[in-house]
User: Which sequence fits this backbone?
């Protein structure tokens, strides 16, 4: 995850070190709550890459999308700490469900510690493993898909998720501006940037959808299936 673009150099998260516009935004939206605040502190102290985690702003955006769309089934590809998972679980109805997939089983203890303490635990089903293998096994039609995993595999995730998304459903893909690297030719060994570029081109050419890139944080693409 990245910071909101501003005229000042961005910090790496939603925590201390924010620029003034960022601080103003976060002070005028809903708070993230004690559990998510604790999760954020824990991640910055104990994880090597806390920057990958969804933060306060993105979490509230995801919750708001769920409030507006009222999805009954959500697929999340790439859970990491479970922060975004918990935010979406806040916004969905009591009988709605989230299937979230995380490839790194070393994150299980960290993630489940917070999911089990959440009042939304019963809405969340966690799958540990490769999304490429797990998605075909899910017997669900999804109303919403959130992609935030291995960037070089975004096109593959999209191709797997799209047939399982209902007409009128949405896909939200994170990091689609990728630190601004999408505006420059990728380095030969930079497979992550190449994956995002391939994904963005695939989305641009797909006539089955409507789409918009929101220039928030590191780029958030919202895709509506016709």
Assistant:
């Amino acid at each position: 995850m990245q910071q909101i673009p501003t005229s000042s150099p961005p910090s790496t998260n939603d925590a201390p070190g924010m620029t003034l516009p960022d601080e103003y935004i976060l002070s005028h939206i809903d708070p993230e709550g004690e559990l998510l605040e604790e999760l954020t502190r824990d991640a910055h102290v104990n994880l090597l890459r806390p920057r990958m985690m969804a933060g306060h702003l993105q979490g509230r955006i995801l919750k708001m999308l769920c409030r507006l769309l009222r999805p009954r089934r959500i697929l999340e590809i790439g859970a990491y700490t479970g922060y975004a998972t918990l935010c979406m679980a806040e916004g969905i109805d009591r009988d709605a469900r989230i299937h979230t997939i995380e490839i790194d089983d070393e994150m299980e203890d960290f993630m489940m510690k917070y999911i089990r303490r959440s009042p939304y635990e019963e809405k969340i089903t966690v799958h540990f493993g490769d999304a490429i293998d797990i998605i075909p096994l899910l017997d669900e039609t999804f109303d919403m898909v959130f992609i935030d995993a291995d960037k070089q595999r975004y096109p593959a995730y999209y191709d797997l998720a799209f047939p399982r998304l209902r007409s009128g459903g949405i896909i939200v893909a994170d990091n689609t501006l990728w630190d601004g690297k999408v505006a420059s030719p990728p380095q030969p060994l930079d497979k992550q940037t190449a994956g995002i570029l391939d994904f963005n081109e695939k989305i641009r050419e797909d006539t089955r959808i409507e789409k918009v890139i929101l220039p928030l944080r590191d780029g958030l693409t919202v895709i509506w299936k016709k």
Observations:
- Strands lie at 73-77, 97-102, 124-128, 142-147, 165-174, 209-214, 220-225.
- The chain has one domain: 20-225.
- The chain has a mean pLDDT of 90.
